[in-house]
């Protein structure tokens, strides 16, 4: 039955592309039965997973393939100098085309059909459901949410929570201040930009909870670190973070 349903889906998608032609957002090739909206099979297959040794805390890839051979728990210099508030952070794929194109289409052009294939990329770094009690998206400020009409992190977190059969919280962690987009700022400005930006509602609900934060892109880690700070201060247990992509 599952195979039949998949075949029917592909057939319908092929027919829809014949009636309403769509071109790949990456290579501009006409789409037919390609399974990922807005991208052809060839381009989607070029996504580059993050592999090899990485910082045991923030997930930053190490240059040397033998960096962790004798020290599996090795952390990077930044994490040694400034230990983050989160226990662990990891990302699945490199933030570069065509994944970069897909995330930007989702966020800025409202192509929400990409939420499911993007969330499916979390399977590259499987999450152990028993390690967490609660999944949370990194929140948007109400003004940005009204402008965009959705929170891409919530769409991803919702699908991951369903796959892992874990509770999803979208109202405990809130953004109290509208800030400039982090992508427009340097590292020092990012830190200043996010100070006192997040807060926790009903902190009694998250006492001791092991929380997994979900977002689309990890750049410097400033955002997830600020979220983890306020969650820990409110009484949460260990906070970890996972993202679909990482700027490397």
List keywords for this structure.
single chain; 248 residues; alpha/beta; Rossmann fold; four-stranded parallel sheet; 33% helix; 13% strand
The total strand number stands at 6
Structural class by sheet pairing and helices? alpha/beta
Helical residue percent band: 25-40%
Oligomer type? single chain
Distance between the termini: 41 Å
CATH topology of the largest domain: Rossmann fold
> What is the number of helical segments per DSSP (H or I, 4+ residues)?
9
Strand order of the largest sheet: 1-6-5-2
The Cα radius of gyration reads 19 Å
Sheet-strand content, in percent, reads: 5-15%
User: What can be said about the biggest beta sheet?
Assistant: 4 strands, parallel
Could you list the spans in which at least 5 consecutive residues all have pLDDT below 50? 1-6
Order of helices and strands: HHHEHHEHHEHEEHE
Label the CATH architecture of the largest domain.
3-Layer(aba) Sandwich
Number of domains: 2
Query: Can you give the mean pLDDT?
Result: 88
**CATH class (first level) name of the largest domain:** Alpha Beta
Write the layout of secondary structure elements.
Elements: H1 2-19, H2 41-44, H3 77-81, E1 88-94, H4 99-109, H5 115-119, E2 134-137, H6 142-148, H7 152-164, E3 173-175, H8 187-193, E4 198-200, E5 211-218, H9 222-233, E6 239-246
Parallel strand pairs: 1-6, 2-5, 5-6
Antiparallel strand pairs: 3-4
Short description:
The chain is α/β, with parallel strands linked by helices.
Write up this protein.
With 248 residues, the protein is α/β, with parallel strands linked by helices. The chain folds into two domains: 1-46, no CATH class; 53-246, Rossmann fold, CATH 3.40.50. The chain has nine helices and six strands, in the order αααβααβααβαββαβ. The chain has a four-stranded parallel β-sheet with strand order 1-6-5-2. A two-stranded antiparallel ribbon has the order 3-4. The model is unreliable at 1-6 (pLDDT under 50).
């Amino acid at each position: 039955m599952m195979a039949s349903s998949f075949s029917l889906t592909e057939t319908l998608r092929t027919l829809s592309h014949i009636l309403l032609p769509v071109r790949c957002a990456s290579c501009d090739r006409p789409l037919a039965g390609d399974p990922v909206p807005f991208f052809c099979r060839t381009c989607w297959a070029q996504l580059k997973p993050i592999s090899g040794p990485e910082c045991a805390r923030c997930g930053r890839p190490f240059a040397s393939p033998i960096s962790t051979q004798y020290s599996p728990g090795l952390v990077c210099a930044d994490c040694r100098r400034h230990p983050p508030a989160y226990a662990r952070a990891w990302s699945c794929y490199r933030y570069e085309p065509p994944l970069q194109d897909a995330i930007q289409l989702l966020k800025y052009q409202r192509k929400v059909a990409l939420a499911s294939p993007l969330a499916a990329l979390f399977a590259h770094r499987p999450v152990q459901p028993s390690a967490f009690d609660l999944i949370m998206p990194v929140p948007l400020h109400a003004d940005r949410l009204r402008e965009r009409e959705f929170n891409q992190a919530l769409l991803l977190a919702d699908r991951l929570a369903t796959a892992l059969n874990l509770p999803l919280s979208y109202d405990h962690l809130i953004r109290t201040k509208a800030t400039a987009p982090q992508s427009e700022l340097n590292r020092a400005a990012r830190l200043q930009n996010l100070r006192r930006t997040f807060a926790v509602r009903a902190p009694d609900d998250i006492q001791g909870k092991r929380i997994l934060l979900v977002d689309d892109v990890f750049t410097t880690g400033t955002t997830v670190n600020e979220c983890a700070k306020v969650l820990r201060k409110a009484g949460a247990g260990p906070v970890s973070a996972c993202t679909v992509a990482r700027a490397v």
